[in-house]
């Protein structure tokens, strides 16, 4: 069941008195059974559906509910289109673009210009500066497997560099802190697992289908990068980089120290990437607490300096 398809059906039924299920099925390239499931979901959501029997019958929304068509205001439509437009193209193919085009086609030209103006006020871009062709290929393969309920096989390298071959029932993709993950049932471990896409290679979808099993969020292990491994570090920073750190921690975690310096407290995971982030701030950042993080940074700096020492 796709939310963008359901939204489009609601918009169509608001504009028209009734529509035939087979016409809707052809429009969205799904079966009439799928359309009836969508209609039932719309009805259960509190939008009253009526059916008109006979040769010229069809499905509609109760007329009293459609008075002045206030279900979706101009702001509502703008929010819907902005949300759909923020979905990375790699995740949708042409599906979302078609939905956006259909929704835009349901409003007047003047309203469409107003909506476009409002949408242009917010831009959400998930792509990296240089792109990642490998990741794009992996996402495309996973998306097809999710849609067709096909097993996925791939080579996986865990956080310690240990490699293994996995076969999973894919259930959901997850974007967390700019990293993509796939959640699924691993046949090797006979349990639900989560895999980071950047550690996946040689991925392929099987011709073999699987019957989806029941799952909820609690069945998946927490990400290793989750809050359970986070500590707080206290930094003395130059105000020239204050804006950069406030993006991550907010003003409530910063305080003025001098006219040129500030104290910042940030969440910190003791990983190479986290230490590298602090070290790339150079002389504009000094770790004050905790002591063991400060000592680790000093050790890493000495190790780096030894590379450049003349023997």
Overall geometry: extended
How many strands, which pairing sense, and closed or not: the largest β-sheet?
Answer: 5 strands, antiparallel
The name of the CATH superfamily of the largest domain reads Winged helix-like DNA-binding domain superfamily/Winged helix DNA-binding domain
Q: Please identify, by name, the CATH architecture of the largest domain.
A: Orthogonal Bundle
**Radius of gyration from the CA trace?**
26 Å
Average per-residue pLDDT, rounded, comes to 79
Q: Roughly how many Å apart are the termini?
A: 66 Å
**Beta-strand share of residues:** 25-35%
Q: How many DSSP-defined strands?
A: 11
Strand order of the largest sheet: 6-5-4-3-7
CATH structural class of the largest domain:
Mainly Alpha
Which spans of ≥5 residues are poorly predicted at pLDDT below 50?
none
The domain tally reads 3
Determine the structural class based on helices, strands and strand pairing.
Answer: alpha+beta
Order of helices and strands: HHHEEHHHHHEEEEEEHEEHEH
Helix count from the secondary structure assignment:
11
Helix percent reads 25-40%
| CATH topology descriptor of the largest domain | Arc Repressor Mutant, subunit A
Task: Walk me through this protein's architecture.
With 311 residues, the chain is an alpha+beta fold. It has 3 domains: 3-119, Arc Repressor Mutant, subunit A (Orthogonal Bundle); 133-219, SH3 type barrels, CATH 2.30.30; 227-308, Alpha-Beta Plaits. It has helices at residues 3-15, 21-28, 32-44, 74-85, 89-92, 95-104, 109-119, 133-148, 242-249, 272-279, 291-308; strands spanning 49-52, 58-61, 150-157, 163-176, 179-186, 191-196, 200-209, 230-238, 254-256, 261-269, 285-289. Strands 6-5-4-3-7 form a 5-stranded antiparallel β-sheet, with helices on one face. Strand 9 (254-256) and strand 10 (261-269) form a beta hairpin. The longest helix is centred in the C-terminal third of the chain and has 18 residues, at 291-308. The chain is extended. The mean pLDDT is 79.
